[in-house]
Amino acid sequence: MQINPIARNPYTSITNKNRNASTDSFVSTMGKVSDNHSSYRVYTKKDDMLYSGGNGTGLSFYLKYAEDSTEDNPKVLARGVDENGNEFEQTINVNDVNPRNATIIEMHALEATSGATKRNGLTSLPMGSENVGINQRQDFMAAFKKNIADMNLLGEKKTATEYSKLHDFYENVGNATTRSTSSNNGKNIGVMTIGNQGYIAKYADSSTDADPVIKVGDHEVHVNNVDPKNATEIEMFALTSYMDDKGLTDNTGMKSFNKMRAYSKQAEYNGFIDGIADSDNAWSMSRNWISILENAEDSYFKMSENYKHGVDCENLISSLLRWNQKS
User: Fold this and answer.
1) Which of 217, 269, 277, 312 is deepest in the core (most CB within 10 A)?
2) Is 6 helix (H, G, I), strand (E, B) or coil?
3) Neighbours of 138 (CB within 10 A)
4) Which of 208, 123, 215 is closest to 170 using CA atoms?
5) How far is the C-alpha of 204 from the C-alpha of 214, rounded, in Å?
6) With bands split at pLDDT 50, 70 and 90, how would you rate the model's confidence at 17?
């Protein structure tokens, strides 16, 4: 990552001496600013910015896509002032960001380009990770786990669940799913709903025979990177839609994904999994879908009236295992 001095950018300078009501509100949000600074900068978010913000150390910055950013190799330009008041510029290769060893700026770049859900519309990052300097690296995954444990200890189950979903999202983001810049011109190969929202699987502009890419909503899934033993529901929707389209499943009638989703409800009824209908889980929670189908298959084979469902599970499992061996 390269850091260079930059020319002065348009910004709002707020001095401690001339605070007003809005300044007090900003300080309460950002935390206490170091006594070493008599002023700090606030970058007003513009349409071409992915993010603008800062923290109580005096660090303040904004993010936008770099000129050489591409769909396969997204790059984010960060500009601002560090905790010592020095102007900086960084170019962040988003694909290289490791949430277990990242700076706060790198994580905000990953957040902005991955489509992470922000808690209360503010941030998707773990509590207690924000108030650090520009070069301080952290294990954000460990911070999420601490948040989860703390919230459970306090009896805040809903908040603990929110942090757990964000932990799972960052655990898996980048494995197969990225933010989409594709048009909607590709061939439609599947349809699904999450909650009240419908989604279409279609080939992305960048899709090739060697690297098939499926667009789902605002995201793209590189199906070669999808592991059915560790994939989100969205990734499985993209994969099974692709496999059906290419004749890689022993499937007739209902689409493979619709069968998989229906049979997973049997596994949930068995107590093997939970939250299968949760719309947030579809994007952020990776599951072992082969184990889920095996659990359902076992139940179906024990019920003569549902034996055909057991055979369907067996066929789908075989197709997914062949895919795993191929990829």
Assistant:
1) 312
2) coil
3) 20
4) 123
5) 5
6) very low
Residue 259, token pair as written in the block: 């069968």
Q: Which one-letter amino acid corresponds to residue 225?
A: N
pLDDT at position 210, please? Answer: 92
Burial category of 98 from C-beta neighbours within 10 Å (exposed 0-12, middle 13-18, buried 19 and up): middle
Residue by residue, DSSP assigns 160-211 as: HHHHHHHHHHHHHTTTSEEE----S-SPEEEEEEETTEEEEEEE-TT--SSS
**Each residue's pLDDT tens digit, 48-64:** 999 999 998 999 999 99
Q: Which two tokens stand for residue 91?
A: 């170019």
Bridge partners of residue 192, in order along the sequence: 199
| Joined tokens for residue 163 | 């942090």
d(CA 105, CA 97): 10
Task: Let me know the angle formed at the C-alpha of 79 by 179 and 21, rounded to the nearest 5 degrees.
Answer: 100
Q: What is the mean pLDDT of residues 171-183?
A: 69
Q: What are the extents of the domains in the chain? A: 12-172, 177-326
Q: Is 236 exposed, middle or buried (0-12, 13-18, 19+ CB in 10 A)?
A: buried
Does residue 71 sit in helix, strand or coil?
Answer: coil
pTM for the whole structure: 0.55
Q: List pLDDT tens digits, range 125-166.
A: 999 888 899 999 888 988 999 999 999 999 999 999 999 989
Please count the other Cβ atoms lying within 10 Å of the Cβ belonging to residue 56.
Answer: 17
